[in-house]
Design a protein that fits this description.
The protein has 224 residues and is an alpha/beta fold. It has helices spanning 18-29, 36-49, 58-64, 90-99, 103-117, 129-133, 147-160, 167-183, 205-223, and strands at residues 7-11, 32-35, 69-72, 75-78, 81-82, 122-126, 139-144, 196-199.
Length: 224
């Protein structure tokens, strides 16, 4: 690999702890964190704000062509505009779920994600980072956890933000998201053949990160 730092890809279903673990791992390594879902949220925000129909066609492709999404210092920019706060709404979350099913959107965003990872020294987090975005990533992880654990984590996250929802409702939402992610035609959620799978159900964030650091050191030493 020479002096180029590796690309670390982390995928997995909702509630597996990817975002928290990826952020902590990037901090420990001194790497840049690339939350691929955030880039899709930025595009979805633009579509909603500018009232662009969310369906494949000439109008959508014309809108997407000059669009640029970039990440810097933990912020996300859409054509140079800081939209970090604006993309964290329920409306944009729903719009993002629709946008990620559109071929034109994925054809636009995937190259931007690859550009963000091109220099190495990055931790990519999402649902297709090791299978589609960077299939040649030096180290890939697939984080998972039981449905009950993932629903509990999601329920706690919502409560912390002041959003009231029953645990049963959250569990069904997580289950539905699993089905959507795993069965969608474009870039379905799946474990890359060479990904290291970690069940985070009974592990703390620090325990997961330590296991990942050990695996990274082993993988990189054998490929150097």
């Amino acid at each position: 690999m020479g002096s180029r730092k590796p690309v670390i890809a982390i995928d997995g279903p909702a509630g597996a702890g990817k975002t928290t673990v990826a952020r902590r791992l990037a901090e420990r390594l001194g790497y840049t964190l690339v939350e691929t879902g955030t880039m899709y949220r930025a595009v979805a925000f633009g579509l909603v704000r500018d009232r662009v129909p969310q369906r494949d066609g000439p109008e959508l492709r014309k809108y997407l062509e000059p669009l640029d999404v970039s990440l810097a210092g933990g912020r996300v920019y859409l054509n140079g505009e800081d939209v970090t706060g604006a993309i964290r709404t329920h409306e944009i979350a729903e719009a993002t779920s629709r946008a990620t099913t559109l071929a034109a959107v994925r054809e636009k965003v995937t190259p931007l994600q690859r550009r963000a990872a091109a220099g190495g020294g990055v931790v990519l987090e999402g649902r297709d980072t090791g299978t589609v975005v960077c299939p040649d990533a030096q180290v890939k992880f697939y984080l998972t956890a039981s449905l009950g654990t993932r629903a509990g984590r999601r329920h706690a996250e919502l409560a912390a933000r002041g959003v009231r929802a029953s645990l049963d409702r959250v569990r069904e939402d997580v289950r539905a998201r699993d089905v959507q992610d795993e069965t969608r035609e474009l870039a379905p959620l799946k474990r890359a053949p060479d990904a290291i799978e970690l069940d985070t159900s009974d592990l703390t964030v620090d325990e997961v990160v330590e296991r990942m650091l050990t695996a990274i050191a082993t993988r990189c030493s054998t490929r150097s």
